[in-house]
Amino acid sequence: MKKTMLMATAMSLVLGTAASAETLKWARAGDALTLDPHAQNEGVTIAVMHQMMEPLILRAPDGNLAPALATEWSVNPENPEVWNFKLREGVKFHDGADFTAEDVVFSFERALSEESDMKGIISSVASVEAVNDYEVNIITNGPNPILPATLPNIFVIDKGWAEANNVVDVQDVEGGEETYASQNVNGTGPYKLVSRENDVKTVMTINEEYWGADEFAMEFTDIEFTPIQNQATRMAALLSGEVDFIQDVPVQDLERIKTTDGKKVLTAPQNRVIFFGLNVSDELLGGNVDGKNPLTDVKVRQAMNMAINREAIQQVVMRGQSQPAGMIAPPFVQGWTEELDSYPEWDVAAAKALMEEAGYGDGFSITLNCPNDRYINDEAICQASVGMLAQIGIDVNLEALPKAQHFPVVNGLESDFYMLGWGIPSYDSEYIFNFLYHTKGDLFGTWNATRYSNAKIDEMTQAIAQEVDLEKRDGMVAEMWQIVKDDVVYLPIHHQVLNWAMDGKVGAAMDSDDQVKVKYFTVD
Fold first, then answer.
1. I need a surface site. Which of 168, 349, 364, 389 has the fewest CB within 10 A?
2. Is there a domain that residue 157 lies in?
3. At what angle do helices 378-390 and 298-307 cross, to 10 degrees?
4. Separation between Cα atoms, residue 294 and residue 284, nearest integer Å
5. DSSP string, 235-285
6. Which domain holds residue 146?
């Protein structure tokens, strides 16, 4: 009798566990490019990694900085080049290894290494030193008042695991390298990797030993992440219940989702600007102009900027789900002003006149490189822009590729004219100047494929990273924005509006960075 009761109790516990288990089936247009935490500074890759790995400081869905692997941090009042971080004790990696200061030092050194795509984010860091097992000092090259805001995407990797699996060095993604770290994860995060099939599915399950189990909702026990590039297929998967939650929602389907019983849409301003970059070096890589480059003439760049009808893109391509932009910074980023975000009125006649003045009245040809699975209606925006530029004599050949092929073309300086989208995780203009406007190098300008080089901007970019007088700093940032707006090496198109669509059971914690953090999600 006693044995039967014990078996019944055990069975009820099993059934109870199964009944409470919830799987979030999550889809978006593209896949993570890798699972190596320091190999790619790319939005989808970082979003997937946030489920399994953690930084010292997290940016919560409400936009505020929150403790993660560090519980508190402060700048040394006697030496502003030293930031002290108290680390969370009792944390374990997924394989059971203890998290200590040694792992933080190792991770920052790895993130600063030559092959790392994250080194530009923390370019001000000179060194990281362990004070004891649960305390580190980060020493910067000069004072850095915004250092904590730069850390939410710098993930901590287990030093022992990296050494044991020969992944001390960061994966060379663009060189086609595959490593143990590109397919496996040993983090401290709320979910553990179960399986990974590139461009097909990534499966994760709850980390039962997670330090934050009692602090966060943690209502989904499992995650299935599936990239679905085709918009119609992604929509059908949501409406049929095949998936519960999608990002990159097709704007033409928003009303359909809203009026479908049991489905809902969440909308917010997004921390992302879509823009075109222009090669301003001496010669074009392609096209029909030999020995010189029309894009080196600011009048040609101004003409292109004037020929793009942002309102038409907003209304026709984006169905109202965008805000035309004149600068590569959304309104909640430090340095944004309404005046700086202004853009030239669409004026084909005036643009043609500028082309004539520049000596290109008959136009020229050029190739536009565009992703087709990264941003909302990315290829459609490019197609619309091709037609607009044709009106001023520029014959544009559109080459649209998946992001895994597109980004190496851009970063490899193999494009004259390209689309990118840019989010600013630090919420500060320094991040934009560091990556996009500074002369391209190992630590700075790592995403500057325009070949733009301005010694004053380079100097000021490094100066604002150290300026502690915030009023003076604001003035410097404003001056920098005016310089680069006048130089027109980028053509901002719009600020994206963020839409997430989901089953009614999903209580999503919406994040303007489009960075899903499932530990905050609830089951409604």
1. 349
2. yes
3. 110
4. 8
5. HHHHHHTS-SEESS--GGGHHHHHTSTTEEEEEEEEEEEEEEEE--SSS-S
6. 22-226+505-523
Cβ pair 351, 388 in contact under 8 A: no
In the numeric block, which tokens belong to residue 491?
């053509």
State the CB neighbour count (10 A cutoff) for residue 141: 14
Over residues 430-444, the pLDDT tens digits come to 999 999 999 999 889
| Measured CA angle at 26 (ends 22, 27), to 5 deg | 160
Q: Which regions of the chain are under pLDDT 70?
A: 1-20
Beta bridge partners, 401, equal 371
Query: How is residue 286 written in tokens?
Result: 């392609």
* 414, 174 Cβ separation under 8 angstroms: no
In angstroms, what CA-CA distances link 441 with 85, 117, 451, 484? Answer: 29, 12, 11, 19
**Neighbour tally for 111: CB within 10 Å:** 23
Domains held by the chain: number: 2
Say whether both 308 and 206 belong to one domain: no
pLDDT at 487: 98
Q: Dig out the tokens for 165 from the structure.
A: 């699996």
Cα(87)–Cα(285) distance, rounded to whole angstroms?
A: 50
Structure confidence at residue 20 (pLDDT): 55
Cα separation, 289 vs 193, whole angstroms: 51
DSSP letter string over 426-442?
A: T-BHHHHIIIIISPP-S
- The answer to whether residues 213 and 309 belong to one domain is no
Residues in Cβ contact with 203 at an 8 Å cutoff, skipping those fewer than 6 apart: 193, 194, 195, 196, 222, 223, 224, 225
Predicted structure pTM score: 0.89
Kindly state whether residues 314 and 418 are assigned to the same domain.
yes
